[in-house]
Write a structure and sequence with these properties.
With 748 residues, this protein is α+β, with helices and mostly antiparallel strands. It is built from 25 helices and 24 strands. Strands 5-4-3-6-9-8-7 form a 7-stranded mixed beta sheet.
Length: 748
Amino acid sequence: MPELFDRVDALIASRAVLPPPAERKRLRQAHGFTLDEVAEALQVRRATVSAWESGKTEPRPPERDAYARLLSKLLEIYPANSSATTLVHDTAAPATLASTPAPAPETRTLSTAPASEAAPTAVSENTEPRPTTTAASAAASRPARLTSPSSTSRRPAARKAAPETPASADPRFANGPLAVVDVNDNGHLLAYCVGGLVLDVPAKSIPALVDWTLKEARLGQPKLSGPGKDADPLIVLTEAALQRYGLPVALTDEEKLAGRIPEGHKVIKQLARADWKLTKRGFGPWARIYRPAQGSERNCVQLCIPSWHALDSRHWGEAAQLPAAELARLLGVYASRVMTPRGSTAVTGLELMTALHPPTYAVRDEATGRFRKADSKNPGSLGEHPVDCAPCEAPDGHPLLNDLPRFHVRGPAEKLLEEAYDWARPLTDDECMRRNLVGIDVNMAFAAGANGLIVGLGEPTHVKQPVFDPKLPGSWLVDLSHVDLSRVKVAKDKWTDLDAGLLPSPFTPKGERPEGPAWYATPTVAYAVELGYDVAPLEAYVRYDNGRYLDAWYNRLRDAYLATMADLGVDADLTPANFLAAMDGYKDRDPELAIVVSAIKATVKGGLGKLRERPRGEGWKPGQPWRALSRPTWRPDIRAAVISRTRINLHRKIVKHAAFTGHYPVAILSDCVVYASNGPTPLDFLPYRDGKPLPGGFKLGINPGLVKHEGTQSVLWGEEIRERFNAPELNLARYIKDGTVTDIDNGE
């Protein structure tokens, strides 16, 4: 009889009720789970879970019952909300290609609920399910009038309209994540939102603008992870709006240096009288205005002031000069695909890590039935409190190094030096006979380096004479000078002879062969083992608390990049020849959308750079702590691991290419590699057979980790500039893009 019962149970499990595929994905993302985390819990492949969510396949026992149980638990926390899917703002067009102009909405009235109604009090960590605003409660609030931008825009639209973004499905944020406040020709203050929506702004002062934003504007963005917090609304102020609110159009040199206007400014006094506060960075290009939270109720508005250089032209191009409507759409695309900007692209990149892995979470108190903050950190996060780095990971001037003699210069055996490549060599006689120098560039190289990388989540543990473990993140003191690139394993257990004199060492940024023990991150040491050589670390700082912290960060930025490039006509499934053709002049198809691509890439590099942010003035002296050290996200070990893996990924492809073709790079700068070639395009030297690339080698395409054409110059050009500067090893990768020789190195 028990066996009969077991068969009945199995039959029931085989038909376990599952929500629709789209709902499965919603529930997973609502709690901040990655595909990898769900796959690991159910002991299936990542692609299997993805197929379940897309509806391509259905789970079968025994996984089906476990999957149904997971989804039912998540559904209890994040119930399906019919109103949230029907109260979408009716003036916002669906996402379209950038070439489609924004529709001009008709003039009408939109009912908006006050923030207190739209976001009822939940728990301190925003994890308790919240009821959504009903149509009746929304109608009872003060209306905000919609105005047609075609009749009120102060300046004509430049070139094409920036791309559209859909309105938020969350009624609390029905008008999108942000608005650009401007003054029209009639002197009216207007808020340009995403989707072509324009609102009248009744606020006559900055404190009143903050109140209006929180109570009536219905701006903001839902949280990216279950235990996380909703994004604060972003208000962008044009020059005309600054004048209307009594703020300077531009900062003085002294104010630029301080990064803020003086504390005695009248607007700051107005905010103080209204009980609004500013963060420590004051009222600057990215100002945060807030009141202390009441329970889970957050009262905070982010200001962005482009004329104060909030939008760095190196990453945002000419965005600061765009008309208000176009700027709103451009920033709206970035916000919907990455997150609402919180500052520079670097700051936003770091904030995105925290938004996807919040440091804390809420648990229900069994005694009171209420939610409270858990005693432990959120699993997979970096927690609330900073941890000390290992001494070898500390940059010069760090308090951990106070015992070192003054003016002491640390060498490789004292300091972890994982940086990107800057290497070049003279051309061989054979290479001089070829016509061209062709540069290829790895797409989103550092993002690809972060994908799947196991990094430390907690503090390091010092170990003497450790046995190397390639799955254990940390910093290792080991001698790799015995690794000989003239004979390495390119494939498993297959030794290959190479010309080591034409290759950079994978272990140093300058490509020089190490001369003795040095500190390396785990991916670098693992690569030495992969090449066929034994390693014997002398000591290490390892992190037993670890995980794939950057996976969700990578996935979101990858998806943002691919979606935006697809809007520009560069799809992920193009053939190599069609891909090169599509990349030719892609920025000219929609310059505003190209700005979004630039900002996404800057978010990757800047966010990783912030993991080891250095002192920024403020009277800092060597040996003293600086502000960034107080962040849990100040983690130089994670930055080092990503750079190490990125450099190793590139070297692996170079070695595969050399072993198969006999061709070697002549220069490498960060993620750009230059080869001598008889033809002018990458297809002239990349070994494609029947449209398929060399396994493990370079592959043309738009996905992160694949390569694109960076630029082509003649061999004569390369030899001429090296002779002109009397520099036989001048790094030609720095200038390959357009042939212009400068001292600027942007790593692209």
